[in-house]
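worker-03 picked up job from queue 'complexes'. Input manifest follows; two sequence lines, order preserved.
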Amino acid sequence: MGDLFSKEFVDAISQIRLNAGTVPRGGIHGAHVSTQLGGGMEFSDFRLYAPGDDIRRIDWNLYSRSGRLFLRLFEEERDLPVYTLLDCSDSMFFEDPPRANAGKQAAAIFIGAALNQHDRPSLYPFGETLNEGFPTLSSSRALPAALQRLAAIGPCGLTNLPAAVHKLKALRLRRGVVAIISDFFDPAGIETLLESLNGLRHKLLLIQLYDERDSNPTLDGELSLVDCETDHNLKVTVTPKLIEEYKKVHMDFQNKLLEFSTKRRAGYISINIQRNVLAQFMDLFSNGVITTGG
Amino acid sequence: MIGFTALSGWLLAALSLLLAGVLAVLHYLRIRPRQIRVITTLFWQQASEQVRARSLFEKFRHPFTYLLLLLAGLLVLLALAKPVFDDAGQPYRVIVLEAGISMTSTDNRFEKAIELVHDEVARSPEERVAVIVADPEPRLLKHFEEGLGVLKIRLDALKPVDQPVIRTAVLRIAKSLIAQREIGEVVLVSAQPVVLSDPKVRVQAVGEVINNAFIFSATFVPDATDMTRGEFHWCIGFNGQQDGKTTVLLRRNDEILQSEDVTLKPGSTREFYLSDIDADGSTLSASVFGNDCIRGDNQIDFRLPNRQLICLAPIGGTALPGSLKSLADLLMEISASETEVAEGATVIGVGPKGTDARIVIWSAERKGALQPLTATRHPLVDGLVFEDALCRVPANPLSVSETSIPLLLAGSSPVAVWDSNANRLVVSELFFDESASVVRRTGYLVFWNRVLHRLAGWSHVPLVLTPLQSRYSDFDHQASLAFKADINHAKPVEGVVADAISGRTFQMPLWQFILGTALFLMLLEAILNIRGRIA
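worker-03 finished. Artifact:
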């Protein structure tokens, strides 16, 4: 694990909580309020009695006043499945230090935060498709081993998030939170990528790993640009005019990502890979609670 | 058609191919892009598509800059080859038209010569023919770049002059005009039989060889004992194909001094002389008639020197002492004279040693009114201006003798005369009158200065007389040419010669123009390649 997951880092993530609002039905007892009403402690609502209902939950006082049978409903606290999709394509390992390091730390933060409140995190690295990560964790005791496996993940080819999402859908997992940690540089284009996310039934959290050079390239002159994933060769004459156009295209990319997040009510976090990832999380969520959005 | 003076066509072509290849390699190396791996080409792809879509020029920038460089390089090569436009087989032709005295004949040979010039001009392309007129002031009538219209106007206005032509100097200028040409010739249009050994000069004779008698020289030889007289020698020459009969005539005013019929052989000269001629400054007219076609040298006027003894002495009255004193001072300044001022200032003698010379001052008894003082056209006072000086008119006319020649007039009355019988100058005392403003005028001293210098500065050396109205004496042909053309004939340069003798501005050679264009293209290419300025 070494520098990637130091003791300080591990200690720090033990303080982080994950707030997903209400969680889908199902699962086991946990720290999150579920949409499922049942045997919890917090009163939620009344409803008319229907045959087959548990008669122990009939509100007799209300019956005495109204003459009708009402059932008391309570909110049930459930655990939250946290599916972390970590981009492990070649582009994530292209730079030095690789962008994947920041991704791994972000993933560790999510896994750690989930375990802290007895949620059930799982990790799915993806490249050209969704790979097998490690099974769902249910105990914080499993964290060191999980981090060790996380640190060992290497590059796995092209970025193909639509294929990974497609495979994720096919797994028919219990509804939870899907955190996608990526640079979102998919050769298919941002439109195709976002379209594939539309059909996802989980709560969505997009964590973009960015470098300032992504938006402000420092190239100049006659260049043959080779894509680190596709080996696509592009000859360009980098001029101020081209740089200006590049920035416009990049800005458009960012805007589309943000627009999608807003429409989809997904969370969006932008992490600068040049800076300390944990510090950025702490700054973003000063109360130590990561809110996953709608 | 274009020719090259510094490189052969084949060498130029080979160098051009080599240049194209070298430039192509250099250009390829220059524009070959550096290969850089990037995290994604996604954004670059879209951005460059946008830029290219907006700029058609951008798509062609690289080939265009290569072509620019190639063109610039080829132009430099072309310039180094020093190209000249060269019509095949057509020589550069400089036509020299003599317009001196030999063209002033009675047989319209000058008109024929101009026709010949037009014929010669018509044989060559307009830009390959130049015309020089050869007279005492040679000049370019048409340069290579000038049109034929200009030439026609200038030829129509051209007249021959009664002076000889310095042919060698003009031919030197003409040859300098074709010095840089591969093929070129000088055509000399002349009325004289000319034999030249220079293969580049072709002589076009105009008119026939004619009989021509001409005045060759004239000399006045003063008498050893009486320098106021002497012998007049004059010489006539004759050109022609056979012996010619000629009448020679020498006149002074209307008086015929000499008349003789002579037969002269071609190329011979004959000398005539007339003894006992007064050196009185009078004009002699020498003429030849008869078997002669060239009129410009048939009659020449000569002026004899003025070598009269003069006496200076008051007659009758007494001249003002101040006037005589100033006159005496003036005489003292003339080194050639020997001056004696007699006691009582009555006689002032002047003249060469051992020779008496006197000016007689005539005294008028009565004084008249003040009148403007003017000088006559006599050589002694010709051109003298007294600046509106006033002088009293003598009551008695100043006429010492009937042969007196008026020199100065007060109004219409003479106040100074030349007495040709007594060979003396007679000046009215009134000229020195206190009330006359003459004494205080510059013209007074100028008058005496001129008279006395001319009369006192005699010598025994025969004088070669020069014709009146001649420009020979003050015209140095060589110096004039050098001044006008500013030519270094040791290293003739067409541009300099043409510019200097025609007054035209300097013509930029073709190769310089091409070189300039090449530099401009290189500059353009460099500008296009400045980052951020493309498209």
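worker-03 released lock.
The mean pLDDT of chain A is 82.
The domain at 7-20+80-291 of chain A is CATH 3.40.50.410 (Rossmann fold).
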